[in-house]
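Researcher: Let's run the pair from yesterday's discussion. Sequence first, then tokens, for each.
Model: Starting with the first of the pair.
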Amino acid sequence: MSIDGKPPMDASCAGATANGVIVAEAGGNGTVNLDDPAYGGAFNRSVRDSGAILIGASLATSRTPTCWTNFGNRVDVHGWGESVATLGYGDLFNGGHGEEDRFYTSVFSGTSSATPIVAGAVASIQGNRLALGLSPLDSTEMRSLLSSTGTPQSGDLARRIGSLPDLSSVLLPPYSTSLSLSASSSQVDPNQTVTLAATVSGHSPTGSVSFYDNGVLIGTATVTNGTATLTTAALNFGSHNFTATYSGDVANTSSSTAAPTVVMSGNIAAIINIINSILLDDDCPQGQPCP
């Protein structure tokens, strides 16, 4: 029988959930209908609600209740109640030399195996939210999310065990980012340097930015407060097309600059004018001014 209907334990669960703890609780094995009037509404949430997530068990090959799981409207979600691999027993692997601390089994079952499956889903959802800078869910919020987004029970609907958690429907994707790049100057003399600054939009981005000069990697810098900076080596004469790529992190997608940031090393326009002047002078008769 689930502990949720027993007043002392029920109060303990209620105290834990009131303090922000998510309680994933085995619904118990006994083929018991928790809605039976014999229990005097002990499992009726409108009478009392500990805030715990009550968990039933299904067959591994379908979302049909196992023959032994407890059931009823108080059961929120379910997990596999058979054929679950875990530590112990040694039927799946005996450690190679009968070492008990390396035993594995493939026959863990009941709501005892279903409950850690749901607890793992809870931990994944909380970790996902924290990685994205979101506040964690409390127990009743998590209970509602899992039951409303899970894959519905598929058989023996008279014995309600709730839905099977579906992480693909609740895990949030990383934030989209964009990357902009600027240079400390757009025109420098040959053999001078410039400082490149890459600014990442997103949700408190971390990670790194790689910088390229005409497609060649010239360095990588860590993102701090949304910006990564790099001072180039001395630039040779010519046009330098700088681009950058952001690595992304657990909360932010990767991104690249949309267009290059161009820096000219040397006054190319002035040099072209000098070359043109020399060429024009060569076309004039020696000792005579050009028209």
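Model: Moving on to the second of the pair.
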Amino acid sequence: MALVHRLRQPLRAVIPFDGTSILSGVDDRIEYYPGLAAWRRSAEQVWIANRSSGRLTLNEQIDYMNKLRNQFPIAPIRVVYTKAGNHLTSAIVTDEQAVIDHKLYWEAVATMDEAFYLTTVLNGPLLIANQVAGGPRSEISHFPGLSHSFHRSGRET
């Protein structure tokens, strides 16, 4: 995750995704991973005991609106940019094991040249000047300088 003038170490997690779906504790396919199966069932019990309502299962929560599943297969080059904040910030992600947090938008790009171009535009002075001069935030985009069409093409996580 990009922070002002520094990078943080990524959080590590195991995502029980088998190439088609996120496995739950009741899915027969999770039995191929005995330690994961036991841990997953335990996590689901903790979720049930502590969730605020019975509306979502653990799988539905972690893959809310398919925001996790839509990241697979993971693209080799992605541009991420902030959803909210005082200034839009973007970065290039080339780690094919990285899953993007829900607080960022992301877009797969075909080449590093495309990624460099896009991050240069997003982090550039013209867009920053538009953000400062843009006035109130739009309901569609938290960033007034970012066009509606680009923002909607960005994948929300």
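Researcher: Give me one sentence on the second I can quote.
Model: Confidence is low (pLDDT under 50) at residues 135-153.
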